[in-house]
Structure formats: structure tokens, C-alpha cells
Amino acid sequence: MDDMKRATIKQWIESILHPAIGAKPRRRIDQNENAFPTSQQKRKRDSTEESLTMPDFEPPKRLRPPDNDDASTPPLRNDVSIPPSTATASSRQRQRSSSPKRIKAGLKQASPAIKYLPSVMDPENDAAKELFSYLAHDDEPNPWQPGILEVAKLSEASSKCKVELRSEGSWVIQVAWPLLQLAVGELPLDCWSVQTETVDVRYQPKYTARDTFNRKLDLVVGLPIEKWARQYEAIAAVGIDGSAPSINQSMSHIDHPHTGDRLLGIGFEVKASDGNLDEAEVQLGVWMAGLVSWMWERRCGTPTPPPVIGCISIGDQLDFYIVYGVEGANGELDRVCVWGPLSDLSGRLGSHKSTCALIKTMRRVMQYTSGRYVDLLVHCIAGHTYGSM
């Protein structure tokens, strides 16, 4: 080896043993040191490299919800369950149909259908027209007149409930109930509260939204058994379609031990002054449709059940409706028509004159119920059995 090569090797060895000033020595790994850097060392190295390579502009970071252990954030509840989103077109349609007006329109698709007819329309039913003519014309030689004191009390109670913005319960107790009692008078009828009694499922109109509304009324006028024993015996002796009587057959469409065993007539729905007419008409229509369905189920032969009267009072305004069934092609009940409100019969509780006129109209309703209505109903169900008793 010549002197030049020897000098080059010596210079290389010197550079390793004594590095130049400013040169960064190569780091050796001690035998006792872990070959993998610790997390603290790694974070320190990453921060150093980031400071050398990070550009001046930093893009926005995605926001992250705070940790659960943050003192300013309340703990998450585990008692709330959120159902999965399974809304379909049909379920959304049912949700939109929750308003009384939509439900009322949808009853046309029920079975039997419930059809609402305004007073200006022809009901195309002779019995309904005849009943309307009877209620609208008081041509008796000695017409019934309510007492002056009773009229004054009823007018005062109505005005008080209106001024004090009383609830529906007050209108029922202080106005509607005394009105019915005054109109009944000595007639063989009774008034019953049915606020907690619902229509039997057998006689409810069948349609998809039937559980989205109230199917109850406030008051009903019916026939007490002790005053109509002969009529009750005639109906009890005949089963459905003229068959043998059944122990489970009822005297009305109501699922209740008392009212279900009574013959019923007028249905009365009461609302406060801010009540919704569409909601009241839905309740009245469904309730009366159940009564008509019961009549048609119990009828024997071809006679058509008689029309029945329904009433709605919203505050001091009272409206009357005539409800009747229409036969289908197969001889069964096809639809129930609710004709009204009948403007010629409607009235308002207020002055002595208007209150007296309204009471007299209600009196004719009671006279029809205890007269022609009962006769037609019993003949329709019992037929020749009733005539021979």
C-alpha cells in the first residue's frame, strides 16, 4: 500500500472518531434501550418534523362532539328510545289525516260509508223529508209552551258560560242537560250521560283511521224499560234476521251494561264556545252510524229503519241533523247519511224569544222520538210479533 492510500484511510478513520463541528452525530442505540421509541419520544419527534414541514395554511378541522366527561355537558340518558325511521307513504298519509276535516272526508271510504249532506242538498229519502217537515212546522192547534222561569234560567246559564269562557263540562251540566230535561217534560223518555261509553266494535264503521278520533258523545235520550215494557218484550223475542233470540243480543250499539240494554234515540254532542264543528260532526256521524248499523242488523224483512235525530251544540249555538241509512244492491246497509246542519231548525240560546223557539224545536224532537220513531223501530225489528201482542 502506497503512502497516498494510507493517508486516505487514516483521514477517513479520523473523521469517524472526531466528527466536524456542526455535524449531527449518528445516534447509537444502547443495548438497554428499547429499539422502539416511547410515545413521549414519538410525539416530540412528530412535533419537530411537523414544524419543519407544515405549511403556513392549515385546513379547517372537522368538529367533534365534546367528551361525555365534560362538566358542561349533561350525561347521556339511557331511558329514551328513538324508533327507526320506517315511515312509508301509507303511514305519512295516516299522519296527515289526523285533522278532523280530513277524517270527516275519509269517512266516505268507510264501511258502511258515512256521507255528510249540507242542508241545501236533497236527501233523496222520503222519511227524512217527512221528518224535517214535521220538525220545521209547528201547526198544532194548542202548541206546547215552555215555562217562562225555565226559559230565563236556561238563557242565564248559557250567557254565564259564554262570558266566563266555561269548559265543555260546564256547558253539558248547566245548559245541555237542563235543555233536554225541559224538552222531555212528562214524555216517557230519559236522558243519560254516555261520555265514557263507546260504540261496540261490531257497529263501528271500518276504516284505517278509526283510532285517531273520539267515538263518544256526551248525552243520549232513550226509552226507559219500565215505561216501554211491551216494546222491549217484542224486540227481545226476536233474534237477528228473525231467528231465535240470543242471550248475547243487545238493545243498542253501545258497549255498556246499562245503555247497551236500552233503546236509544237522540245523540247529543256538546262543545265549548271554541269547539271545532268538524270534530263534533265526526263524533256524531260515527256514533249515529253505529246506531243505524245496529237497526239494520236487527231489522226483520224489508222495512227500512226510521231516521233518527242528532244534535250538536257549540257554545250557545245548537244545530240539528237527520241521520238515516241507505240500502245497497244486496239489501244490506250501504251508507249512512248525516243531513245537516239544518238551518231552518238551528237556533241560539240568548234572548227569551230565541231560547223559547229552540226549546220548542227540541220538544218536537222528543215527541217524534217517543211517538213515530218508536213505532217504526219496533215494527222494523219485531214485525208481526209486535202487532199481535
Please tally the β strands and state the result: 8
Percent strand: 5-15%
Helix content: 25-40%
Total discrete domains: 1
- Secondary structural class: alpha+beta
N-to-C span? 151 Å
Radius of gyration of CA atoms, rounded to a whole number: 42 Å
Instruction: Describe the sheet with the most strands.
Output: 8 strands, mixed
The outline comes out as elongated
**SSE order, one letter for each helix or strand:** HHHHEHHHEEHEHEEEEHH
The whole-number mean of residue pLDDT values reads 81
Described by its quaternary structure, the protein is single chain
| Uncertain stretches of 5 or more adjacent residues | 28-36, 48-97
Number of helices: 11
Domain PD-(D/E)XK nuclease-like: 135-373
InterPro entries: PDDEXK_12 (IPR046797)
Protein name: PD-(D/E)XK nuclease-like domain-containing protein
Biased composition (Basic and acidic residues): 58-67
Compact overview of the structure:
With 389 residues, this protein is of the alpha+beta class.
Outline the structure in words.
By secondary structure, the chain is α+β, with helices and mostly antiparallel strands. It has one domain (110-387). Helices cover 40% and strands 13% of the residues. Strands 1, 2, 3, 4, 5, 6, 7 and 8 form an eight-stranded mixed β-sheet that branches. The N and C termini lie far apart (151 Å).
Task: Identify the notable features of this structure and list them briefly.
single chain, 389 residues, alpha+beta, eight-stranded mixed sheet, 11 helices, 8 strands, elongated, PDDEXK_12, PD-(D/E)XK nuclease-like domain-containing protein
